[in-house]
Amino acid sequence: MTQGFDKALQQYNVRSDSSFTSIAKRINQYYDTATAGNRAGYKQWKRWEWFAAHHQTTSGKFDNYLQKNIEALTVEAKQSALTQQSYNGNWQSIGHTNAGGENGTALQGRVNCIAFDPVNSQVMYAGAAGGGIWKTTNGGALWYNVTATLPALGISDIVVAPWPNNNTIYALTGEGLSANVYLHKGFGCIKSTDGGNTWQLANKGITDAIPDSGSGGYKLLIHPNDPNRLLAAMNNGIFETTNGAQSWRFLPTGLFSNTNDIEFKPDDANVLYITRLGDNQLHSYDFTAGVRTASRVTTAAVNRMEIGVSANRPNAVYVLAGPGSQSGNNNIFVGLFYRANTNETFSAVATSLASNVALMNLGSMDIGFYANTLYVNPTNADDVFVGSVALARSTNGGSTLTQITNTNIHADQHDLKRHPLTGDLWLCNDGGIYTSTNGGASFTSKSNGLVITEIYRYSGTVGVAGKHLIGTQDNGHFRYNSSANPAWKFVLGGDGMDNLISSINANVIYACQQNGLLRRSADGGETFYTVPNIPNYGSITVYPWITPIVQHPPQSILVPVMTLNPETIYMYSNNGILVLVNNGETVYNIGPIAMPAATGLAPSMAIASNDGGATASLYMSNGSRIWVNNNPLQNSTANWTEIFWPTTAGTNIAALAVNPANKQDISIALSGYTPNGKVFRSFNTGITWVNVSNGLPNVPMYSIAYANAANDNTPALYVGSEIGVYYYNINLGGWAPFSNNLPRVPITDLQVDHTLGRLVAATYGRGLWSGDLYQPCPNTQAVNMIMNGGQYHFESSNQTNTAATIIGGVNTMVTFKAGNRVVFTPGFSATGGVYLKAVTGPCGSGAVLPFVAAPILHKQ
């Protein structure tokens, strides 16, 4: 586990190979009673716990979810009977693309690294924590995704080969820390030889040393004198290739784990500097002699150290060491250390920032294990930048470190590099990408186009186009209003969790931050206030990390015209379901009594009424058990009945849904890797269940929604999985992929809007998407849209006409299929390199385009 969890693991003697339940139980016990000074890493742990809970094997262990995703997509491509895509479900990204906070703060999501084309100053590449690789061709003015045909990857580092091979890009998948913190695992290196349009696996030799649970990377280096020689620092050691990543070998340094930073000695590439997590030594490896030596940087305990070198002073080395902490009222960190020559010892040049600004800590909580970056100017070794929570600079070799006081710089810095052609500085952090054109005096966000938001929950306004609300990891809540300028707006901070827009008044919004911190807005999200009278408000033992809220179906009465129960809200707690009435002024608990606390997966709730809201059935799950209350408006704890469902090993209830036209009809979506154990449905309030998993891939499910409206009892469903959306109805005989142009990412929330004929999907890593509802194969169709990146498939039983504009190069894959003919009408265009295919054949007769990673991401 990450350093933030060490105290919990040591106190309870938890083994790293223990089951998820064992680990979660012990670490939650630790945090439930930890004092402020011992709560470092709590938010990172809860994010990890939620994500990890979806990815258990039948034995309760963690699995390599990325490899599982690729396997599932490959199987899907080979299944001819169920590979037809949506006939009209053309997904389009809603964003957000550039919703900043006050003063221009970037709030896109976490970016880990940036790399530069050595010839064209306008071309750069960036790696996101869960959203893959992004490219700009206009100096950062606009970014676009170049891994649209791959499952979303956690990218830890990117390097670009020198000219004339500057179209060759290498990327290290997975994150060393996040293989433990967020489970953004990987499988080594991928490579592109066409500027990012296509990618191949380039990990032979790395995967041999990666355990089944996957691995994570930290850093890639290209040898300064040999572009085919690279080094990869990973959490299971250092790997070397001498043939352009055709094969790798384990570098025999004698260091086998948690290698987090590597740097060549500036004037001698035969010497490699190495640091490891939890190790207070700087290691030096001599490639010629095959010998490793070590120099102690500090006698203090460290969790993470980063290396800084400069060609201006090639024998000198800086090391930045965490953790950060508080001593009295002083914000300190282990230190910035300096050694002038190889035969000298390290000395601390700074252990704090000027004016007592916190570098690596939030109060008593350390952040240095997670965010830690060091940059030394290659032309001036006294010009040093250090980054963690804050960003600071020294012009005197670290003796004085002063915070760069831009109010727009997002917290948690991960990478800082100087552009080799322009000299500008580029910064990556938890908000996005920044640049400085004045040597670091100020920074400006350059995050436009980065759709990398990791969304927990989504709410829309039924029947009203262009109004959305998303709760996101680490970056709070965002509201979308298509009539506003800008359309996307940041409205509430913290970790953004469950939310709802009132079905009576769209200006009334409820938004939950982590652990049940519920806020209410009466002006469409312009301002929020704390909902009063909620007991144990924000308690981590009472409210789950993601606390569900739902609204009671309002009851309309014609004479006189009024609405009963206009704003009755149900809120989950481990002590029972809370009922909030009178705008939250009145709160009471309706049980059930002694309900077991939720573990790992977020609990879920759903409600439906057969009589316009006069009565309703409220369903609730804590992740492992289900209850129903058929009279939730009554202030009583006696109305709950437990529902027993067909439990399978290694699975939990990820989501539940109830038919809006029949409150006895419920469905549950399950996590984990149990084959043919993904979705179960009951038509009699859970007395009996039907397994409706046929056709679904063996990956975790996250979300589920009924396809019908309240006055239409058609038995159809949508489910959101680890790799996209699927559609089910009885006539299909199983589930059909419904991911036309949708990235292959976890679908954490789904909402159907029958009034507008739209389905909205929230993703964990690629923002918010909207698509058409499923329709039977049309007789004819016209496709006149612009397609730029992604996978598209169109079918009709007779004829398809298209005047589409298709751009994006090889990264765009399009197939037209019709029973009789495909007609390209005036106005149609497709740029060079686009994968385009037109064929004739009956609807649903099998895939004609491989909508998977396999043809694009293949082994060399």
Provide an overview of this structure.
The chain is mainly beta. About 5% of the residues lie in helices and about 40% in strands. The protein has four helices and 68 strands. The protein has a five-stranded mixed sheet, with no helix packed on it. Strands 1-60-59-58 form a four-stranded antiparallel sheet, with no helix packed on it. Strands 2-3-4-5 form a four-stranded antiparallel sheet, with no helix packed on it. A hairpin with a 4-residue loop joins strand 3 and strand 4. Helix 2 packs antiparallel against helix 3. The longest helix has 14 residues. The radius of gyration is 27 Å and the shape is globular. The two termini are about 35 Å apart. The C terminus is likely disordered.
